[in-house]
Amino acid sequence: MKTSLYTKVGKVVKKIFGIEDFSLFRKNVHKRLGMIFYHKKYTADDIITVMKEMGMKRGSLVCIHASMKEFYNYSGTTEELIDKILETIGGSGTLVMPAFPDVRLFSDTYIFDPINDKTGAGYLAEVFRKYKGVQRSINVQSSVCAIGPLTDYLCNDHHKSRDCWDTSSPWYRLCEKDGLIFNLGMPRNYISTFEHCVESILQYEHPYWAQFFTKEKVYKYYDEDKNVQMYKSITSEIERRPHEPTIFKWLTKNDWAHSKISNLEIKVFYSKSCLNKMLNLGRLGVSLYWVPSSKKYIF
Prior knowledge:
Elements: H1 5-17, H2 22-37, H3 44-53, E1 61-66, H4 78-89, E2 94-98, E3 111-112, H5 123-129, E4 135-136, E5 144-147, H6 151-155, H7 170-176, E6 180-184, H8 197-202, H9 207-210, E7 215-222, E8 228-235, E9 241-242, H10 245-248, E10 256-261, E11 264-270, H11 271-283, E12 289-291
Parallel strand pairs: 1-2, 1-6, 3-7
Antiparallel strand pairs: 2-5, 4-5, 6-11, 7-8, 9-12, 10-11
Helix pairs in contact: 3-4
InterPro entries: Amioglycoside_AcTrfase, Antibiotic_NAT-like
Family: Belongs to the antibiotic N-acetyltransferase family.
Catalytic activity: a 2-deoxystreptamine antibiotic + acetyl-CoA = an N(3)-acetyl-2-deoxystreptamine antibiotic + CoA + H(+)
């Protein structure tokens, strides 16, 4: 895989300053600065109020990405927040969170254990994964956990997908059902995993997008009887460097909304509208990636 100058410089900086993980380093710095300026406490009820103002209600399909490092002014427990979300959407609603395993587990001999492997998607997602009745999709790269009436529809075919974001994936089906995708404490310009549905769908329309899917890889997992099973997925080793502000400037209130409680950034993406907007932009050559760049291609 060709390495960009950005990555090469990053490796040098990490070595000089002893930084193992840039993402974790940024989160720690952001938290330390935030604790200087933000002191107002908030509760699960405060978060729920904002989420309801953004559209969450009984029967909603809700997906949550969260960074608990940003919850330092939160007065409550993780379980309390999950319980109140489930109470709000009720038995007719479905709650989803990312559940891809910790990348540090990955190796050529790695066998995914959907029941026992911890998620690498953060503490809130890991607590949710252990809830009674929660199911997990079988997909090493981009698994999800879900509970609610849409769980089977979202999760059951993930290992059958040609790639992990195609039309059989929970990420696309979330958008198909117009799910609300919330980011709690995530970086301001972060969108969500569903953004990868763009390249998955457009790979058949243009060579720029096709380069994201060039290599077939075999993944192994344990089934419910602890037998080793396999599935194939199309991926690529191409380097990706996202620049979400390129997309954000095109999004409107029909695509997303933003609010804030104390230090906590809360965003919601109205997934169906947002995905359609990003697909239309992609067909015009507007990509959220600056590596690989779409500028040398004709659209």
